[in-house]
Design brief:
This protein has about 475 residues and is an alpha+beta fold. Helices cover about 30% and strands about 20% of the residues. The strands form six sheets. The protein has a six-stranded mixed sheet with strand order 1-2-6-3-7-18, sandwiched between helices. A four-stranded antiparallel sheet has the order 12-14-10-15, covered by helices on one side. β4 and β5 form a beta hairpin.
C-alpha cells in the first residue's frame, strides 16, 4: 500500500482546515475574547485565553503545558513542549494572545473589534492580524503535519505571552529564569507584516523602539494673550522650535547618536532591489520624506526614524485665548542595530541644550524600550527556511534584515542566543492597532501552506 504521508498531503490538510470552516471558527472564538492587555478590567479574559483556549489545544496535540506567572505581566506566560527525540532539532516558537484596545466607536459601520466579520475577502476583528490570526495559522499548520506524519519529526517549544502590546513586561525575566527550558536551535515566529500583500516574507529581527517625552513648564496658570502676549514666553512656540533641533524639515533625524551611522554592506545589498508598494486603502507615500540619500526600504529597515506622536499645549476643544503655562510632546525613535539605547535620552537633552532650548527637558521615565536585533542574513537556517518557502510558493520569499517595527526579538537573540526567523502572515495595510483591523484570506491560505511546508521539512531534513 503506498505511503500517503507526503509534504503535499500535509499542505492539503492545512488548507482543508480553512476550506472546512474549522479555522474560521477557531479564530472567531479567539477574536471574541477581549484580551486587551492595557485594560486592567480584562484580567479574567487574559487568563482564560491561556487556560481555556491555548492549553486544551496544545494538550490535544501532545504537548505538556506549564503556566509561568510573573507579577509584572498582565497574565501568565504559557510554555508548551513536545519533545520527540533529543537528537532532532529543537524549535522555539513565540506568540502573544493579547491585543490593543478595541476602540469600537471608531470602526466602520457593521464592524466590531470582538465580533469577527468577513467582508471582501478579509476577516475584520481585533487580533485578526496582530497576533491571534498569525499564531492560529501556525497552530493549524502544526496540527496538519501531526495529522499527516503522526509526529512532527522535530522538538517544539511554544512560548505564549499575554502582554506584548504592553511592552512585554516580565518576558525578560522569564527568558532569563527559564533559559534552560527555552533552549533550542532556532526561533520561528510570526508577527508584523509582510513586505507587501503578495510577497511571502522573512525578517530576521526588529528595529528598536523607545519613547521620548519632552516637557516645558514655564509657570502656573493661563494668562490672557492680549494682556500678556509679547511679555511671556509661550511654551508651545518654544517646544515647536525645540523639535526642529531634533527633526529636520523633511523628517530626517538630526541627532547622530540616534542613528547607526552606516548601513552594513550585506544589509544594503539585501534591500537594493526592493520597492515598497502600497495596497488599496493605504496612504500615498511621500518619497521626499525621510533621511536623504537613502532608498525608501533603507529608511524603514536599515535606518532610524524619530517621529512626533503627540503634542499637547492649551486646549483646542475649549480655547481660553490665553498663553498656556506648559507644553508637552511624545516622540518615538525606531532604530536598527548600532544605536546605544542608554545614550538616546541624554543625547536628545544635549542636542536641545546645544541649540539653546535647555528649558525643554527630556522626562527620564522608566518606560522600557525594545532593543534592536538582527540575525545573520547569511545563516544556514535562513537559507533552509527560504528554500522551503520557495518550494511551497513557487517564488522566493523577500528576506528583510529586520522588521520596521519593534518586537521583543532581542531577548531571543541576546538572552537565549538563538537565530531568529519571523514569517509574517499579515501585510502593511492590515490596520493593526487601529480601527478596522483585518486579515486577508489570501494570506491565511498561503500562510497555512508555507508553514505546513516548513514544519514538514524540519521534520524531514533535521538540521540544515
Amino acid at each position: 500500500m503506498p505511503d500517503i504521508r507526503t509534504r503535499d498531503t500535509a499542505i492539503a490538510n492545512a488548507l482543508a482546515s480553512l476550506e472546512s470552516g474549522r479555522f474560521e471558527a477557531d479564530l472567531r472564538r479567539r477574536v471574541a475574547m477581549p484580551t486587551e492587555s492595557r485594560n486592567p478590567d480584562r484580567k479574567a479574559e487574559i487568563e482564560a485565553y491561556q487556560t481555556a483556549e491555548m492549553i486544551p489545544l496544545y494538550e490535544r496535540l501532545g504537548f505538556t503545558c506549564r503556566l509561568l506567572p510573573h507579577d509584572a505581566a498582565p497574565g501568565p506566560f504559557l510554555l508548551a513542549e513536545r519533545i520527540e527525540d533529543p537528537a532532532r532539532p529543537t524549535v522555539l516558537m513565540y506568540a502573544h494572545g493579547d491585543v490593543v484596545t478595541g476602540i469600537p466607536e471608531q470602526w466602520s459601520p457593521g464592524l466590531s473589534p470582538f465580533d469577527m466579520t468577513e467582508r471582501d475577502g478579509r476577516w475584520y476583528g481585533r487580533g485578526t492580524a496582530d497576533n491571534k490570526g498569525q499564531h492560529s495559522v501556525n497552530l493549524a499548520a502544526l496540527e496538519a503535519v501531526l495529522e499527516t506524519r503522526g509526529a512532527l519529526g522535530f522538538n517544539l517549544k511554544y512560548l505564549v505571552e499575554m502582554g506584548e502590546e504592553s511592552g512585554s513586561p516580565g518576558l525578560d525575566a522569564i527568558c532569563d529564569t527559564y533559559r534552560a527550558d527555552l533552549a533550542a536551535d532556532l526561533l520561528i515566529a510570526s508577527d508584523g507584516p509582510r513586505m507587501t500583500l503578495k510577497d511571502p516574507t522573512i525578517f530576521l529581527g526588529s528595529r528598536g523602539g523607545i519613547d521620548i517625552h519632552l516637557e516645558l513648564i514655564a509657570r502656573e496658570g493661563y494668562h490672557h494673550s492680549g494682556n500678556w502676549g509679547g511679555l511671556l514666553a509661550n511654551p508651545g512656540v518654544e517646544l515647536a522650535h525645540a523639535i526642529t533641533a531634533l527633526i529636520g524639515p523633511k523628517g530626517e533625524c538630526l541627532v547622530p547618536e540616534l542613528t547607526p551611522g552606516t548601513i552594513p554592506a550585506n544589509v544594503r545589498a539585501a534591500l537594493k532591489d526592493f520597492v515598497i508598494q502600497t495596497a488599496p486603502g493605504d496612504p500615498d507615500l511621500d518619497p521626499w520624506w525621510g533621511a536623504p540619500g537613502l532608498s525608501q526600504p533603507e529608511r524603514v529597515y536599515a535606518w532610524s526614524t524619530l517621529e512626533v506622536m503627540e503634542i499637547e499645549v492649551g486646549n483646542i476643544a475649549n480655547p481660553l485665548y490665553a498663553i498656556p503655562p506648559t507644553a508637552r510632546a511624545r516622540l518615538q525613535l525606531r532604530h536598527p542595530v548600532g544605536v546605544d539605547q542608554s545614550r538616546v535620552k541624554p543625547a536628545i537633552q544635549e542636542a536641545l541644550d546645544a541649540a539653546g532650548h535647555g528649558r525643554v527637558r527630556v522626562v527620564m521615565d522608566d518606560t522600557p524600550g525594545f532593543p534592536a536585533s538582527r540575525s545573520d542574513l547569511d545563516g544556514p537556517w535562513v537559507r533552509f527556511i527560504a528554500a522551503s518557502m520557495e518550494q511551497t510558493a513557487g517564488r522566493a520569499p523577500v528576506i528583510l534584515p529586520n522588521l520596521g517595527g519593534s518586537l521583543p526579538n532581542a531577548l531571543f537573540t541576546d538572552t537565549l542566543g538563538l537565530p531568529t526567523i519571523w514569517v509574517p502572515h499579515s501585510y502593511p495595510g492590515c490596520r493593526q492597532h487601529g480601527a478596522d483591523e483585518h486579515l486577508p484570506l489570501s494570506i491565511v491560505r498561503e500562510g497555512l501552506a508555507l508553514m505546513a511546508g516548513i514544519f514538514w521539512d524540519l521534520g524531514q531534513a533535521g538540521h540544515p
